Amino acid sequence: MTSLATLRPRLPSPLREVEDPRFSRHGVRLLLKRDDLIHPELIGNKWRKLAPNLAVAAGRTVVTFGGAYSNHLRATAAAGRLLQLPTVGVVRGQELAHRPLNPSLARCAADGMRLHFVDRSTYRRKTEPGTLAAVLRAVDAEGAYVVPEGGSNVHAVRGCRALGEELAGQADVVAIACGTGGTLAGLAAGLAPGQRTIGIPVLKGGFLTAGIQDLQERAFGGRSGAWHLDDRFHFGGYARTTPELDAFAEDFEDRHRLPVERLYVAKLLYGLVALAKEGAFARGTTVAAVVTGRPFP
After folding, report:
1. What was the pLDDT predicted at 190?
2. Which domains are present in the chain?
3. pLDDT for res 41
4. % helix / strand / coil in the chain, to the nearest 5?
5. pLDDT on residue 7
6. Entry pTM
7. Helix H segments across 111-181?
8. DSSP 291
9. Looking at beta carbons, which pairs linking 59-62 to residues 24 or more positions away fall under 8 Å?
């Protein structure tokens, strides 16, 4: 197995100010924390969450979970190829429904990940010990290291604390798009007193708060940092966009020469523009938006 150190991540990731009248007219500075530039294939929070887990895996087969368009599966598969590490992706949904493979799953397979499809009922029960054991037997990986869906566990949350530490004192408000909430849980814990975090969930349902609190309790012994969620900007749920969001993302790309990933980053930036317009940030506030990914080719 190749060492993680040989992958040469770019840390700390760059912090860049952008001039945007949708913020400046309200007296707000916008910074972009370019976590998408950490590594060309293990992008953004995927590096921060996967690296500590891969260190713990110590060369064992890594089994993880995701939907058909999961960035987490893509990153895990890429890590497996780069580190010469066997990976298995347990994919939500019957195999026939995913044949031929979409570009995301095809990339996983090309990177050497074995794909194992399970029905949605089984997938919902994936954390139950009996179901998980059955899945590991089915993929002949009973001694594997298991990473949860989205990569969010105690190791990942502690790894993401470094993101907050890199931003300590750099902004009044740090905003991030949330899937499972693991990155926010670590980020908020790493910020300095007086800074606060806003999470923009990309799934609808309003269920993330309890999950983030649980992650922080397991990683740090209790709730850590000042943070809250704004559930209004999911645009219908995970992997869903609208013509309005696409137009917004294209406009942001044109303004700032920044490739805008649609499932997370576009929703984050749209939400921040809306919040600035609503007067959610006092004049003189500096807001840092964490760019957790970029569009996959």
Report:
1. 98
2. 4-39+152-290 (3.40.50.1100), 61-143 (3.40.50.1100)
3. 85
4. 45, 15, 40
5. 85
6. 0.92
7. 120-124, 129-138, 154-167
8. -
9. 59/1, 59/85, 60/143, 60/144, 60/145, 61/85, 61/86, 61/87, 61/88, 61/141, 61/143, 61/144, 61/145, 62/86, 62/87, 62/88, 62/144, 62/145, 62/146, 62/147
The pLDDT assigned to 2 comes to 66
Residue 296 confidence (pLDDT)? 67
* Per-residue b or e along 155-171, where b marks 16 or more CB atoms closer than 10 Å to that residue's CB: bbbbbbbbbbbbbeeeb
Query: Residue ranges of the chain with pLDDT lower than 70?
Result: 1-2, 296-297
What is the rounded average pLDDT for all residues in the chain? Answer: 94
The answer to whether 65 and 149 have CB atoms below 8 angstroms apart is: yes
Identity at 27, one-letter amino acid code? G
Amino acid at 287: V
Answer yes or no: are the C-beta atoms of 64 and 89 closer than 8 Å.
yes
Residue 297's pLDDT is 61
- Say how far apart CA 172 and CA 252 lie, in whole Å: 23
CA–CA gap between residue 8 and residue 160 (Å, rounded): 17
β-partners of residue 197 are 174, 227
Task: Determine the Cα–Cα distance for residues 208 and 180; give it in Å rounded to an integer.
Answer: 7
Contact between 200 and 89 (Cβ < 8 Å): no
Quickly tell me which residue has 């899937």 as its tokens.
179
